[in-house]
Design a protein that fits this description.
With 115 residues, the protein is mainly α. The chain contains three helices and two strands.
Length: 115
Amino acid sequence: MKLQDIYETAYNEGIAADPRGREGVERVLERARKAFADLPENKQWEFDQETLVNPYADTRILVGDPDTEISTMLVGIDLEVGRSCWPTLSAPEGPRSICCSPIIPKAEPWRAWNK
């Protein structure tokens, strides 16, 4: 699956579950489209054009080519600087695709990084 596909699925699922309903989200998107259309052409490049299709300002592709094929993901919700996320690659039951914890693990990667 491509990074762009994952991104679009994420915000589309958000729209489907949004408490405002699809109509409420569409009103937000329509306001963004109108604001963009009302801008002079020389100012439109400054506008976050992603808001024309995605109403969630905290959901964006920040790093990476959208056409990149993704085989593994590390995902978190509401992660802050003070939290650490470490994939558990050598768990006894086998590799896991997601592991997020606010606790710094006693793992070899931590010791290697902390040298």
